[in-house]
Amino acid sequence: MDDSALVKLAQEGSPEAFSTLVEKYQSKVFSMAIGFVRDRETADDLSQEIFLKTYLALPKFKFRSEFGTWLYRISLNHIRDFLRKKKRLNEVSMEVVGELPVLDESGEAREREKIEQARKNLLHRALEALPSKFRTVLTLRDIQGLPYEEIVRILDVSPGTVDSRLHRARKMLRKKLAPVLSGEGGCYDLP
Hints:
Elements lengths: L2 H9 L3 H23 L2 H18 L9 H19 L23 H20 L3 H12 L4 H8 L3 H23 L10
């Protein structure tokens, strides 16, 4: 059954239909949340709140867009509201990250895991330091893997704006990461 049919059934009061929609989109909503907040518990809470908000707003859904696009827009707005309420800093000093550990010649798996975790932390802190409109488009495209057309609909901007913001976001992220990563033997390009 397609999303439109499930939404119609859910609007008519079918809990099974809404449950099917939740199952279909649960991992995508959670991935979006964790991409922004970087905390599993918080992302789980946000996902539940997003689906509750979606359920309550379902009678207002008019089928002007796809259900998935509408859900992503609700998700993005809810996550932004959460971040605003938490007064997350828009800029994070790269000095907070500190030095990355150097892999010793023995190449132990534990040491590699520490380095990988340090790289992930570095990337997430640098991502958090980007202005919201650039962080959002980078998260939707490079972390969530959404196609440009979907991002255009979610953000309600032109394709050129998405392309421009994505290009600038990647450039700003590389610039923030370059000084730290250059000590490891070079700058790593983002996909």
